[in-house]
Amino acid sequence: MVTTTTSPPPKGPDTEARRSKSTARPGDKIFLGLSRGSGITLLVIMAAIAIFLTYRAALAISKDEANFLTTSEWNPAGNPPVFGIAVLAFGTIVSSVIAMIIAVPVAIGIALFISHYAPRKLAAPLAYVVDLLAAVPSIIYGLWGAIFLVPYLDGLNKWLDEYMGWTYIFDKASDGLARNLFTVGILLAIMILPIITNVTREVFLQVPKMHEEAALALGATRWEVIRMSVLPFGRSGIISASMLGLGRALGETMAVAVVLSPSFVISGHLLDPGGGTFAQNIASKFNEANEFGRDALIASGLVLFAITLLVNGAARWIIARRKEYSGAAA
Amino acid sequence: MSHAIQDRPVQTAVRHDPLRHARLPRWSPLAIAAGSIAAGVGLGLAAGWHSRIQWGLLAALFFVLGTYAVTAKVEGSRQAKDRVATSLVWVCFILAVIPLLSLAWVTISKGLETLDPYFLSHSMNGVLDAEVGGGIYHALLGTIEQVLLATLIAAPIGLLTAVYLVEYGRGKLAQAVTFFVDVMTGVPSIVAGLFILATWNLMLGFGPSGFAGAMALAILMMPVVVRSTEEMLKLVPNELREASLALGVPKWRTILKVVLPTAIGGITTGVMLAVARITGETAPVLLLVFGTKLINENPFEGAQASLPLYVYEQYAVGTDAAISRAWAAALVLIAFVMILNLVARGIARWKAPKTGR
Amino acid sequence: MHVDALHRTPRHTPPYNGQDIRFTAGGFWKEHPKVKLSRKNGLRATAIGALVVSGALVLTACGSDDNTGTKDGDKKTAAASNIKCDGAKGQLLAAGSTAQKNAMDLWVKNFQAACEGVEVNYQAIGSGGGITKFNQGQVALAGSDSALKEEEVAASQKICKDGKGINLPMVGGPIAIGYKLDGVDNLVLDAPTIAKIFDDKIKKWNDPAIAKLNPGVKLPDTSIQAFHRSDESGTTQNLGKYLSEAAPADWKHDPKSKSWPAPGGQAANGSSGVATAVKDANGAIGYFELSYATANKISTVKLNTGAAAPVEATTANASKAIAAAKIKGTGNDLALSLDYKTKADGAYPIILVTYEIACDKGNKAENLPTLKAFLNYTVSEEGQKVLSDAGYAPLPAEIATKVREIVPTLS
After folding, report:
1. What single string gives the DSSP state of each residue in C56-118?
2. Fold for domain A87-329?
3. What is the mean pLDDT of the segment spanning A84-100?
4. I want to staple C337 with a disulfide (CB 3.0 to 4.6 A). Which of A98, C35, C305, C328 is the partner?
5. B276: Cβ–Cβ under 8 A, 6 or more apart, which residues?
6. Chain B 300-329, CB below 8 Å of chain C: which residues?
7. How far apart are the first and last CA of chain A?
């Protein structure tokens, strides 16, 4: 998915044209058949999923009495059925943006810490631990978030309300538990931190030693070395790492479903419980929904799918662009 | 390299030498840190804020500002910026480590309260929600079987697809496959579950089973395996292939005997990491394996349980006994995933050529 | 996830260099030790895989389904019971309402203890999910908080050969209105006030409307936090039905909605989520089945129904209200219509009755004996007797008798 630093793949001499001449042997034919068959299987599965999703979503949207994109209500079981994704889109984007604002700088910080600041003895185990944390299942983050994090953020919420209330977004903290989009953003930030850190650190380690040593030789301080040689080199790597994290934040289901107190209201007050995300809405509504309600949820899933695809596409585009002119750097 | 910077000799002020500047003693960051923590806690106590988070944030702020002020005064602005960057990086590190450590600590400490051999070796048969007791044996067995089946489906298909893409594919089909593999990585996990439910269970009429769950997991696993294997195969130098081909070794033998063995370490790592990832998936399993309180050894027939599903169910039940079961199961799940990870990384490290960085 | 794996492999040096392969005269290439190493490692990887598999197999051998002499498990179920197994065997899949989960767990436990080799597997995924799975033929029995709708009955005819899905009332219970308000533990409310609270019209605990119902109680100036379910639920639906019948002027939302219809308020997932939220926040109010209030030690609102004295949410009081229910289903179908406006003394009207849904004809042959034996047990005196311990109300005798007549006719 993200291959920020791979050297250009060796272009074999065996292009399709050449191959046709040399695959006279039965073993080759079988092997080619097998591997091509796998590729085709994959294609078929994907196509089937795509058709299935679009079909069910189309069924739902065609009967929706309201504008699917702008309605902030979810009542597919009603008569007439009315549902729209405005709240979900808002909640998904807002919580992911909060997560990114918190996680990206911190992840860069940790990556720098591991690659340039930490004592060497500490750096290797640290990198290891961060790697492992990236693999913790999200249901466990959810469990921890709901039982442990939410009560802790309570005080912070009230404090933000008191001193930062004038910013509008931090106004109106509820008296109850901090089950709001801001908390979800923080939890998502914690979840994607290891992933972003991981990739970013690897990129930082790829910075050519010569650049750094040259800067040092000129008398630069450590920060100047980082600012002048490490960060510029790693910029696109950081962006693609962030996109990867963003992709995960957008699609996160269980952790959000467990932490958020959802409602179908768009509110700019982040500390006011409410809102919802695509994945959370699917998870909490799916069981009770009837056939049509499920189709409606699938339609919302399709939108999430499209957004994720866009983000992943953007990440890939950035990496591809980088590859073109960084061949020399590798 | 970092040593080169850190080990700069500590200098006392020598005013007349233009190349040497006044320097803070080495213990100064620690002193500033201690001071700002004290200030943060003090202010927090004075203002009566309950949440420790505010104390910590304040202390961090004081630390950064304090570092800047002190260094700017003694060492000049360039050094001050450097020190601020250092302190910021440390602050970031500590900020991030606290929640992550807390996650690990909470899971381990709460999990160990309930985790014992009995918990590992018994099912939930006949245990009511509010009662203590019961175990995760059925769920653990279910997860292992489902993940194993998913791997048996996804690994060969993924591997062969990657071989096709790297060794053969140049045409439109390869482009399409590449594109759809990318698309597939973005499939929300619940959608994969829905797809299997609609086809396998509803259209073909099979009942819920561990195998149905395994198929959904395989869908999620395939693109990951393809991607990682592809990258690994691309790293195999072309000279190897050419040498083998030049000797008249058939292409399929070249791939099987030269290319794949060379990349096997990386490929195994990729597969293991994919396995670790699907092990924690809850949503598709929720729809397909049905869940049960009994041990079901046969993944092809009848309802099965699964570990992430178990954690979710017990959390949703919400009684004290159930929550502590959820923590213990979460600990087992983490341990399981971590072991897979460690093994994968072990293989990667052990396979990495010694000439590396 | 695989990303880090990629980055782990160094790129500056090829992982392998060509000169490690030597060739022998025969034209076959021979592996240099280094290649051999790789292959050996490949073998080792396989070996690890084999180890995992055999580990799993070993695991298979040492697990146990036997939880009867557990640490704290009391053996109350081990006593001889009158459960008739009648050829029940194999696995019976059931799914549905979370409201009856605790009752089901209890029944399943007793039933399985009595009948060797039988598994009744009830998954509490929600009423709607249960009906959907039933109509897809995935489960033989669905539990639901509300009776089948017309279109659902129509859909069930595809699964029940020559028959249709019918509603068998099996267990009832009070929906408690739980609250947490420091210094107040004997709160009385009536339907219009509850409607206004949940509709965000009454925002403070010392509102005159509340004060009027609680003379002599010192109500604090705390703001009310009303919690509702974030998921779709029969509990929400039954509360909505109650409010729209008992307080039609103050509750104008869709009474049939399973998801929370009113604006404002906070939400939590599942009854347990609402109960936990109410327990933790001062000034909170929420609704859930009585068992959750008992388990979490949450005070419950006494209801001023117009009867002589305010009614407390207890299983006995709920039974009295359920007794006033009328059967509205026809033939084998025993769907009930509940009387939410009852003013009878000691009748607690916020109730829900949950049904078991099965085919009257055309149940799958392999499931039928188990299904009948299990339902026979649940509706028997013995089965109904265990309910009140778990916070449920047993069926009134008249309705229970009807159910007992119908269960043996299932085919």
Report:
1. HHHHHHH-B---TT-SS---GGGS------TT--EEEEEEE-STTHHHHHHHHHHHHHHSTTE
2. MetI-like fold (1.10.3720)
3. 92
4. C328
5. A135, B337, B340, B341, B344, C1
6. 302-303, 316-319
7. 19
Contact A135 C1 (CB under 8 A): yes
Q: Shortest CB distance from C232 goes to which of A3, A175, A289? A: A289
Query: Does the model's ipTM exceed the 0.90 cut?
Result: no
Q: Highest mean pLDDT: which of A55-64, A95-104, A160-169, C110-119?
A: A95-104
> Would you call A290 an interface residue with chain B, using a CB distance cutoff of 8 Å?
no
Q: First CA to last CA across chain B, in angstroms?
A: 14
Residue C46's pLDDT is 61
All domains of chain B, ordered by start, with CATH? 22-111 (no CATH), 137-351 (1.10.3720.10)
Q: Look up residue A45 and give its DSSP letter.
A: H
Give the pLDDT band of residue C37 (cuts 50, 70, 90).
very low
Q: Tell me, yes or no, if A6 comes closer than 8 A to chain B by beta carbon.
A: yes
Chain A residues within 8 angstroms (CB to CB) of chain C? 1-7, 74-75, 77-78, 131, 134-135, 151, 174-177, 179, 198-199, 202, 244, 257-258, 260-263, 265, 273-274, 284-291, 293-294, 330
HSE-CB at C256 with a 13 A cutoff on CA atoms is 9
Residue C15: the pLDDT is 39
CA distance B135 to C112: 18
pLDDT for A1: 41
Closest CA to C247 of C171, C189, C288: C189
Q: Does B278 touch chain A (CB under 8 A)?
A: no
Is there a contact between B213 and B292 (Cβ–Cβ < 8 Å)?
Answer: no
> B187, A193: Cβ pair inside 8 Å?
no
Distance between CA B180 and CA B144 in Å, rounded?
Answer: 28
Tokens 């308000």 correspond to C181
**pLDDT tops 60 at residue B185:** yes
Nearest CA in chain B to C293: B319
